[in-house]
Amino acid sequence: MQDDAIKVDYVEGPPLSPKDMGIEESSIGGGESAKLSDLRSELKEVFNPSFSTLGHGTRVEAAQEILQQGLRAKQPDLYSTTVPLFDGSKPYEEQVTQVVEQISHWPHLDAKAVVVVMIPNPQEGEQGGSRYFNSVFQELPEPDTGHNTRYLIPPSYIRGYVDVETQKFIPNPKFRPEKPTVKDDKITPKIIPEAVGS
Which of 48, 101, 141, 154 has its C-alpha lying 20 to 30 A from 194's C-alpha? Predict the structure, then answer.
């Protein structure tokens, strides 16, 4: 009777790494894990509990333009154009896994970039709510056609964006947020010509 068992030779010494065995790290999931770890570290630098942090999914090319010109919207309502990312009342470690998952699988249009909008929270005793946060919008000097984007979140409130494919955070050098000011239940047109673009 012939023995069909496979013969295995054992070699003394340290175990071989996937690279030593000719296996690319990304093919066994290590590359993705490293990318996610890097993104977690980068987001920790972004997280600030004294800010409301929101995301807007889009294309990478559009995200790059938003860093320079701001985020245009049809309505002056944050929750119609952004989604909350971090909850400032919770520690970073309790929510980072959920945020990375949300960014990696953005629910709107399978976005390849997520723009990060950050607005300073009101201090205790100050008026807050949607009027406060929506006051960051600027009204653009365009006639309302019903289909155009007449409102803008200035680049000073855009912290940067996450490239979903590379899992890298790209910071915005124009990020310099000021506390929003609510005036007469209306949006104050504070248009900066260089922020609008052509």
Answer: 48
